[in-house]
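User: Some background: our group keeps a shared notebook of sequences we're curious about, and every so often someone picks one and asks for a predicted structure to add to the entry. Today it's my turn. The entry only has the sequence so far, pasted here. Could you supply the structure so I can complete it?
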Amino acid sequence: GSNFAGADLSDVLMDRADFTGTNLSGTNLSGVVANGSSFAKAEIEGADFTGALLDRDDQITLCRKAKGETRLSLDCP
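Assistant: Of course. Here's the predicted structure to add to the notebook entry:
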């Protein structure tokens, strides 16, 4: 996978992007539009998903491994 650790990707349109195995640790993903994207096996520790538009299935998958502030930013149940 790729490495976007610490990157500012806020408000980016990333529909159908493949982030499988990507390092998104500490990445600002606030306000992104990521419909149809894949986050399988992505590293998301410290990532900010505030206001991100994600498919429900992606949100559920990300919430399974999200902790702390990342979990809050995903609006996990």
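Suggested note for the entry: Residues 1-77 form a domain with the Pectate Lyase C-like fold (CATH 2.160.20.80). The beta strands are 33-34, 53-54.
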